[in-house]
Design goal:
The protein is α/β, with parallel strands linked by helices and about 1250 residues long. A hairpin with a 7-residue loop joins strand 9 (about 130-135) and strand 10 (about 145). It is an enzyme of class 3 (hydrolase).
């Protein structure tokens, strides 16, 4: 039996290994929590892309794993000048070190031509497009010409084959070949100098034949380089000690626990890599390696520096990152004067222990990143040149500056930074993300300083002398508290100036005149109202190319000053106060390539933009633009965003621009496009326009609504995707997601298409939020298939739901994320994070990664691939990288305004607080998402961005707050497709009655606000009891029962109006049959007074807790019909107060589309008054005769009919046992009832 992980190498199982146990352990490692689910998942055939078993070694494995590139291309053999050899379509494979070309069209069925590439050549053929010539070495060399279909393939083949051709003839690469022993043909040539055996299954196995085991490696007497990393050695292979010529040995990641003393005989060894093992000590015999210059000990179990290093005088770098050192004893370093570079990152060092006052003069580079240091006195390293101490807990830092060249101290808590003497050689300094309140004086005196990053501190002022430094090229001072910059600047050499996110009211008046080297200026997110001039005359020396001024208070007066920068390429002036952009000024920006004027009050883009022939991006969303600009005339245009404007038509040329890839016209409600225009625009790769509304737009808003946007990165690759399902799982839930593939497009697209279906399936298996979210992500891991083996992506999902069977259930928002996609909820105007990023700064994740002996590179990535330890895909990094998400659930309350889902690019540029504050006052969700994206781009984001904003309108009738002594309440509603405008409830309903959801629910949306009297008649099937006399309520009796009820679950009043909904759904949207009110016959049981028709509509009642605050129900005079129906329209009732403010959330106090208003009163058990007549013709609106419609009924699918009957019967029997029957004279004729959790999956209604 063989097992294969992630489509990679296969290994043979040992006799004691059990396949099922291996598979179960693997699935448990992924994150599944229960054995039954692990076994269920293990039976799915798709799991083969993660783990697969074979009976016998698969034949294709040996060759396919060596295949690096393959494809069908046009091939020609021989010399290009000969006309005989014509181009033919053939299969071409780069396998190992050979080029394989099929001889027939049917790929691998015929003879294969093999061209050895080692020592050969690969050359570009300029005569043909995307063509390469491959030649072998030697006198009998052959040449193949191959034409590739795309430039991308051309580059990929050129790069890969060039590596192969540059290899030595005496080298063999057998990496990733599933080798368990050395192949026999390897020993045919014993003159090998380089042998690569990494990532196989080689191990010390006494049962193997002597000619096949690792002991035979000593036969290669000329071997100089041997790579045995990522095998299953377990013990050090002693045979390598017998290779006298060996100069480089790599045995990393082999679970070694000791190094034998025999290694001391390898006198010629220069590089010895032991990283990623379980070593705690080294043998003293290692001192005999006199030529050893590099010793890799990273990611082992050392607690101190091995003493043997004192004798290895040729080693100049101490590589011990990722070990278990808690203290750094400087005495040990003092005994190693040959060590110049000390790398101790990712340990747990809390302090440095000095032994003497004398300096450690030999250490020039010290790396203490990602430790636990609280303070660091590095004065003892008097010759230090480069110091890394990022991501510690440093409050103070002292450094000797004699030879200091680079200082990296970001992400600490520094309040004091002292360097003495002045560092005259310092060229790079990064002290961002600390707590510094001023720039140290010595910084201004560092004459060779080129890059200074002091962003994300608390600095209030920049010294004027800083700008006088003739060497300073890049100054990053964003995210501070700067109120102003130095007033009168002398000539400065700064080329990049970033002062975003400060409190600047103005820029220095001579800044742009003196900074004649300035190419980049970002002053976004300040309070600027004006700009300084670039020149005082017509001539200008400005070379400014990028100008970012987003999120300020700039007005039209600033626009003429832009003409002083004729070389401007990128201009961002979004979210200012611009009302116009003069055409004459736009015409002068001839080198402009990208412009963003979003979030202003522009009514037009000047037509002179046609003069800017290099423009490729025009972003002007969230303005008041009425006329489509002349951007389609630009030859280089690629992206146009005119969403959220007031466009009514689009003017297009006969042919679209050849490079146009994206056009966004969403959020233009007045826009009308004819068929011809739509047909033309649909040829654009990414064309966005509002879909026509299919339902009634009138009425109160739903509980949630959303808007989303996406933006490509610098290389125009859209590596993000968004998911939005407003009516997930039959209108009762919602699902939103954002997916980020970093640099790949495939994974985000797969996640977008698949995750909603997986979640819907998981909801059928469990209702526990954490369980179904975790399982959704893990199942998605296998759904990625082969794409997820080498690629990966971050994801965040947000699911809104309520429990239909929970009497007190309110809406629950559940967020789950992996990678750097995150969610934040705005509650009471403050951000509430719902996500977590699992990276190396997470202590528990770092501990887990170290246990699996993964190598973390200096950029903080696992094996150099991803910085996230929990992410979808990248299965080849298992078990170091897993897909188990962080899950968090919150109950939604009326204080929750909205939540934001964003990709990595968004959250790298905006803090949670800023994102919430930026969109809190933006009423439209689409405009809010657009704003976030624009801000991120102006703040410096170059990655792809995706943002989803979901606005919430959670009112008291959206959740339950009842104080119940028993169950029986109705579950909360979910938003419907057609927002209704009348609440209908049941007073004094029997215990087995069907509760009707509130107006915001999907079920209540089936009940139209335009109820005709015909539909309220007895023919429809509604029943009502006789209305009691007004005196039935005693003056001394309380207006409410004893327990508190919410608006969803009204209390049953024993002496109030009683009505039951029939099995028919109410709909009057199509009830107008053209009859006039004078032509119809009177309807029995309904009284009208000509123009006045009154309908009693019951609003859910809510009970006050304190009896002293109780009020009597508001009595409204009305006539009672035989059916108990009271009808009112077109007239205001005297004595019924109305509020003028309709801005309240929910239905109370809001004017509805049919003119009715629910007054804001303490007692909500009242009549809703129609203040304006609905917009219908008088005839037949209220009084159309009954028109029985066969579609007006609940539809029960045939397969559920028997089950529903049994449920109804069982439910009625239970209710009869719990409650005695009412008196016969009051017993209404009960229609059929359904429990809310047994509602049919669809309704057949005219709506």
């Amino acid at each position: 039996l063989y097992v294969q992980l992630h489509g990679e190498t296969t290994r043979r199982l040992e006799a004691e290994e059990k396949p099922l146990q291996i598979q179960n352990d693997y699935l448990f490692q992924l994150g599944f929590g229960e054995l039954w689910r692990v076994q269920e998942e293990g039976m799915d055939s798709e799991i083969g892309c993660l783990i697969r078993f074979y009976a016998g070694k698969p034949h294709s494995t040996g060759s396919s794993e060596r295949i690096q590139l393959s494809g069908m291309y046009n091939v020609r053999k021989g010399k290009m000048q000969l006309p005989v050899n014509r181009w033919t379509r053939r299969q071409v494979i780069l396998c190992g070190t050979c080029l394989i070309v099929s001889s027939v069209k049917d790929s691998l069925t015929g003879k294969m031509h093999v061209l050895p590439l080692i020592g050969g050549k690969v050359e570009e053929v300029k005569k043909h497009q995307h063509c390469l010539a491959f030649s072998s070495s030697g006198p009998q060399s052959q040449t193949y010409y191959i034409c590739f279909d795309t430039f991308t393939e051309y580059l990929r083949w050129l790069r890969q084959v060039s590596k192969v051709a540059s290899q030595r003839i005496s080298s063999v690469d057998l990496s990733c070949c599933s080798l368990e022993h050395l192949p026999a043909n390897l020993f045919y040539s014993q003159d090998l100098t380089h042998l690569n055996l990494k990532q196989n299954f080689l191990r010390q196995n006494p049962s193997l034949p002597a000619a096949r085991g690792l002991n035979e490696l000593q036969r290669f007497t000329k071997l100089k380089s041997l790579n045995l990393s990522n095998n299953h050695l377990g013990d050090f292979p002693l045979a390598v000690c017998s290779i006298p010529t060996l100069a480089e040995l790599n045995v990393s990641c082999n679970a070694l626990r000791s190094v034998p003393a025999a290694v001391g005989v390898m006198h010629n060894l220069q590089t010895f890599l032991l990283d990623g093992n379980f070593l705690q000590t080294l043998p003293a015999e290692l001192e005999n390696m006199k030529q050893l210059s590099y010793l890799g000990l990273s990611f082992n179990e050392f607690t101190d520096i091995p003493e043997v290093l004192e004798k290895l005088t040729a080693v100049d770098k101490l590589c011990m990152s990722g070990n278990c050192m808690e203290t750094l004893r400087l005495q040990a370093l003092r005994k190693m004067p040959h060590i110049k570079h000390v790398d101790l990152r990712l340990n747990i060092i809390r302090k440095l222990i000095a032994d003497e006052v004398d300096f450690l003069q030999h250490v020039t580079q010290l790396d203490l990143r990602d430790n636990k240091l609280g303070d660091l006195d590095a004065m003892i390293f008097n010759n230090i040149e480069v110091l890394h101490c990022e991501r510690n807990q440093l409050v103070t830092l002292d450094i000797c500056g004699y030879f200091l060249k680079a200082l990296y101290a970001s992400s600490n808590e520094l309040v004091q930074l002292d360097v003495y003497p002045v560092p005259n050689y310092l060229s790079y300094m990064d002290v961002s993300r600390n707590r510094l309140e001023n720039v140290p004086e010595w910084v201004c005196e560092s004459r060779k300083l080129e890059v200074l990053d002091i962003g994300h501190n608390q600095i209030c002022e920049l010294p004027a002398r800083l700008f006088c430094n003739s060497s300073l090229r890049k100054l990053l001072a964003g995210h501070n508290q700067l109120a102003r910059l130095p007033e009168r600047l002398e000539r400065t050499s700064v080329e990049v100036l970033d002062v975003q996110h400060n409190q600047l009211l103005e820029l220095p008046p001579n800044l742009l005149m003196k900074a004649d080297s300035l190419r980049f200026l970002n002053a976004s997110a300040n309070k600027l109202e004006s700009l300084p001039p670039a020149t005082l005359s017509e001539e200008t020396n400005s070379i400014l190319q990028e100008l970012y001024l987003t999120n300020n208070s700039l007005t039209d007066k600033c626009v003429p000053l832009l003409t002083g920068h004729p070389h401007l390429k990128i201009l961002h002036m979004a979210y200012n106060r611009l009302q116009s952009f003069p055409a004459s000024k736009m015409a002068k920006l001839e080198e402009l390539e990208e412009i963003d004027l979003s979030g202003n009050k522009l009514k037009a883009i000047p037509t002179t933009i046609m003069n800017c022939r290099r423009v490729h991006t025009v972003i002007a969303h969230s303005n008041c633009i009425e006329v489509f600009p002349e951007v389609m005339q630009l030859p280089e245009i690629k992206c146009v965003d005119l969403s959220c404007n007031e466009l009514s038509e689009v003017t297009l040329p006969e042919n679209l621009p050849p490079k146009l890839q994206e056009l966004d016209l969403t959020g233009n409600p007045r826009l009308v496009l004819d068929h011809k225009t739509l047909e033309l625009l649909n040829n654009i790769r990414c064309f966005k326009i509002d879909q026509p509304s299919t339902g009634d737009a009138s009425g109160a808003p739903a509980v949630w609504s959303h808007g989303y946007t996406e933006a490509s990165g610098v290389k125009n690759k859209l590596c993000v995707a968004a998911l939005s399902v407003n009516n997930f799982c039959d209108n009762r839930e919602a699902l939103y997601g954002v997916f980020d593939g970093d640099r790949n497009v495939e994974v985000p697209y797969l996640l977008q298409c698949t995750m909603s279906d997986i979640l819907a399936e998981e909801l059928q298996k469990t209702k526990n939020e954490e369980e179904y979210m975790v399982n959704t992500f893990i199942v998605m891991q296998r759904k990625l298939g082969t794409a997820g083996q080498k690629l990966g992506g971050a994801a965040v999902l947000c699911h809104i739901k309520h429990d239909p069977v929970d009497p007190g259930g309110s809406f629950t928002l559940t967020s789950a994320n992996v990678g750097k996609c995150q969610t934040v909820l705005c509650r009471n105007g403050k951000p509430l994070p719902l996500s977590r990023s699992y990276i190396m700064s997470c202590e528990e994740e770092l501990k887990r990664i170290k246990q699996h002996k993964a190598i973390i590179t200096e950029d903080g990535k696992v094996n150099g691939v991803t910085e996230s330890t929990r992410i979808l895909g990248y299965t080849f990094l298992h078990p170091s990288v897993v897909p188990r998400p962080h899950v968090q659930s919150v109950l939604l309350t009326p204080q929750d305004e909205f939540f934001i889902l964003g990709s990595k690019g968004l959250w790298d540029s905006l803090s949670l607080e800023e994102a919430v504050e930026a969109v809190r006052n933006v009423p439209d969700a689409l405009a809010a998402a657009k704003k976030l994206c624009t801000l991120a781009q102006s703040y410096g984001c170059h990655d792809s961005i995706s943002a989803v904003v979901v606005q919430l309108s959670v009112t008291e009738d959206s959740f339950c707050c009842c104080e119940l002594s028993a169950g029986g309440a109705v579950p909360p509603p979910s938003p419907g497709i057609f927002p209704p405008s009348v609440n209908m409830v049941i007073k004094d309903r029997p215990s087995d009655g069907l509760g009707v959801p509130s107006s915001s629910s999907g079920m209540a949306s089936e009940i139209s606000s335009e109820l005709s009297t015909s539909e309220m008649s007895s023919e429809v099937g509604s029943t009502a009891s006789d209305e009691p006399p007004p005196g039935a309520l005693s003056e001394n009796s309380p207006a409410y029962p004893s327990e508190q009820r919410c608006m969803l679950h009204p209390v049953c009043l024993s002496n109030s109006f009683q009505r039951q909904l029939s099995s028919a759904t109410f709909s009057s949207a199509f009830s107008d049959n053209g009859l006039d009110s004078d032509d119809e016959e009177p309807i029995e049981g309904v009284f009208t007074n000509g123009s006045r028709v009154e309908v009693e509509v019951d609003i859910h009642c809510s009970r006050a807790k304190e009896k002293e605050k109780q009020q009597h129900l508001l009595q409204v005079p009305a006539e009672a019909s035989d059916e108990g129906i009271v009808i009112s329209a077109n007239e205001d009732e005297p004595g019924l107060p109305r509020k003028a403010d309709f801005s309240a959330v929910g239905t109370i106090g809001r004017r509805r589309a049919n003119g009715s208003v629910a007054p804001q009163e303490r007692s909500h058990n009242m009549i809703e008054v129609a203040t304006d007549a609905p917009l219908r013709k008088p005839g037949g609106y209220f009084a159309a005769p009954a028109q029985p419609d066969p579609d007006d009924q609940f539809i029960i699918p045939p397969e559920l009919e028997e089950e529903v009957k049994e449920i109804m019967k069982h439910h009625q029997e239970q209710q009869q046992q719990q409650q005695p029957p009412p008196p016969p004279q009051l017993q209404p004729q009960l229609p059929r009832h359904y429990q809310l959790d047994q509602l049919p999956d669809y309704y057949d209604t005219p709506l």
